[in-house]
Amino acid sequence: MNIFRFAGDMIHLASFFVLFLKMLSSRSVEGLSLKTQELYLLVFVTRYIDLLLPHHWSWLVIYNTIMKIIYISASATIVYYFRFKVPWKTTYKKEEDSFLHDRFAILPCAVLALIINSEFTIIEVSSFLLYV
Description:
Layout: H1 3-26, H2 34-47, H3 59-84, H4 88-91, H5 101-115, H6 122-126
Helix pairs in contact: 1-3, 2-3
């Protein structure tokens, strides 16, 4: 692994930390988009579906597995706070979060994945959100 990938992973972790810190300190999700967070979660789950496949374990595979689990868990926790946790769910303004992500992001990407893929397998097609 090179230093740039490690730095990118640490910056990504820092972004989750900053978002959690903002949410916890203000006890609000005002100004944040649930739809964007759901898209992040969907991207991570579909992109990291290879976690279900057997691996030849090495330190790099272990590192990648841990990072993928952290990304999925952090995104799921953020979505959980938006949807179910008081007082955060009461501060979410659905009317201001109006992007039609199902029509303009998810559906076109799913169609692209069915048309453009290197092999027609469940792993290849399920990673359709790489197009997002």
